[in-house]
């Protein structure tokens, strides 16, 4: 039976650590401030953004949501980002994705100053991660690494298999695991005979976006399973791992919800504090 990794608990621990760092900054006269741009009326995005704002205030970070209608011209967003980049009282800027179809996602995301890019999506931060000089690291894979650290899972020499190669989860996840001295395999939609690979995994990270995609026959006995997926099925949230069949085979496993999700938000707060420290050279 796999021991369940309690992401909600560890996210609470992380938030406490962040709250202490916020306090230390405030004693130096610096109040970390996060601005989130929400463009359009995607219902899940609106709810994520509210969650992020609430979490920020809970650790003492000032937070503001700037809302724009879906039909807003991209130039308006770029101009807004230029102003926020110049504002010394704003330390973190996040553009909630997905953007409306008429906008160029990479152009918008890379307009955020790389020092205020708390999502870690700016090309410069992506490049830094790939050569191991990490600055702002994407929140979800960073949250997975923090979970592994809190749980004292030493991944040195492990064979880690990541399913998914997106820019926001799969690729940065693979880079972080490589930095932590795992042997890393990335699987994706074109991978042939994937089960042969996943069955070799000491650590399996699922970031596919398909409900209950990973089942017991995909998993090696005793593997550590990290489920990044957030899928809505019949009004309920489930992961990319079929928890009920995989949990008996795994040594440790993250549930969905209350696994990786809360850590993602905790890392956004940690990144905002880190951005404040970097900008004020603390
Ligand atoms: P994405 O759609 O951008 O990428 C999915 C990846 O899965 C792609 O690289 C694709 O190659 C791969 N894939 C698709 N079908 C496959 C198949 N049949 N076999 C193997 N690989 C396949 O998704 P994403 O943004 O990386 O998100 C992945 C999942 O993680 C989603 O469920 C998303 O909701 C969730 N997510 C969770 C958090 C969190 O905070 N926990 C954050 C971001 C994303």
TrEMBL record:
SUPFAM superfamilies: Aminoacid dehydrogenase-like, N-terminal domain, NAD(P)-binding Rossmann-fold domains. NADP(+) binds at residues 164-166, 230. Pathway: One-carbon metabolism; tetrahydrofolate interconversion. Signal peptide: none annotated. It comes from the Bacteria. InterPro entries: Aminoacid_DH-like_N_sf, NAD(P)-bd_dom_sf, THF_DH/CycHdrlase, THF_DH/CycHdrlase_cat_dom, THF_DH/CycHdrlase_CS, THF_DH/CycHdrlase_NAD-bd_dom. GO terms for cellular component: cytosol. Residues 5-119 form the Tetrahydrofolate dehydrogenase/cyclohydrolase catalytic domain. The keyword NADP applies. Its EC number is 1.5.1.5, 3.5.4.9. Gene3D superfamilies: Leucine Dehydrogenase, chain A, domain 1, NAD(P)-binding Rossmann-like Domain. GO terms for biological process: L-histidine biosynthetic process; methionine biosynthetic process; purine nucleotide biosynthetic process; tetrahydrofolate interconversion. GO terms for molecular function: methenyltetrahydrofolate cyclohydrolase activity; methylenetetrahydrofolate dehydrogenase (NADP+) activity. Residues 138-278 form the Tetrahydrofolate dehydrogenase/cyclohydrolase NAD(P)-binding domain. It catalyses: (6R)-5,10-methenyltetrahydrofolate + H2O = (6R)-10-formyltetrahydrofolate + H(+); (6R)-5,10-methylene-5,6,7,8-tetrahydrofolate + NADP(+) = (6R)-5,10-methenyltetrahydrofolate + NADPH. Keywords: Amino-acid biosynthesis, Histidine biosynthesis, Hydrolase, Methionine biosynthesis, Multifunctional enzyme, NADP, One-carbon metabolism, Oxidoreductase, Purine biosynthesis. Belongs to the tetrahydrofolate dehydrogenase/cyclohydrolase family. Homodimer. HAMAP family: THF_DHG_CYH. Catalyzes the oxidation of 5,10-methylenetetrahydrofolate to 5,10-methenyltetrahydrofolate and then the hydrolysis of 5,10-methenyltetrahydrofolate to 10-formyltetrahydrofolate. This is Bifunctional protein FolD. The lineage of its organism: Bacteria, Bacillati, Bacillota, Bacilli, Bacillales.
